[in-house]
Every structure is written in structure tokens, then in C-alpha cells.
Design brief:
Elements lengths: L4 H23 L7 H21 L8 H22 L1
Helix pairs in contact: 1-2, 1-3, 2-3
Family: Belongs to the YggT family.
Keywords: Membrane, Transmembrane, Transmembrane helix
Protein name: YggT family protein
Length: 86
């Protein structure tokens, strides 16, 4: 199963970058109806929403992307270790 490891790394890397792009988009004006922006929000919202609920929605600064990226990287390491042992 080690042949899957590069694909798993790429998938997690893409997710990390989509979250970073979403954070950057929140700092600038953009058209929320643009298909590219909608794609980014639709992919990242299911990942970020649970962290936002856990941290509470009353914070001035949303730290959920930072926590999500940290957890995603932990999950990536666990999945890769699991694939190496199979």
C-alpha cells in the first residue's frame, strides 16, 4: 500500500492550501458567487465548521483554520503510518 502514500500526501496538501486560500479570501473583497470561490468554500466548510463549533463562535479572530490545519496534518501522519504498516 505504499504506492498510495504520495496520493494521500497530495490530497492533504491540497486541503491545507484550500484552507489557506479561504483565509486569504476572507481578508479581501470577492464575489461569493464565483464558481472558484464557491468550490473553495464548499470543500473547506465541512472541515472548518466542526472546529468553529468546538471553539465557540464568539471570538473576534477565527482560529479554526489554524486548528483545522494542525489536526489535518496529524491525521495525515497517522494515515501515512498506517499505509506503511500494511
Amino acid at each position: 500500500m505504499t504506492w498510495l502514500i504520495p496520493y494521500v500526501r497530495i490530497a492533504f496538501e491540497v486541503l491545507d492550501w484550500l484552507i489557506i486560500i479561504r483565509v486569504l479570501l476572507s481578508w479581501v473583497r470577492h464575489d461569493p458567487y464565483n464558481p472558484i470561490f464557491r468550490f473553495i468554500y464548499e470543500i473547506t466548510e465541512p472541515v472548518l465548521a466542526p472546529f468553529r463549533r468546538l471553539m465557540g463562535g464568539r471570538m473576534v479572530v477565527d482560529f479554526s483554520p489554524i486548528v483545522a490545519i494542525f489536526v489535518i496534518q496529524l491525521v495525515e501522519m497517522l494515515v501515512i503510518d498506517l499505509l506503511r504498516t500494511l
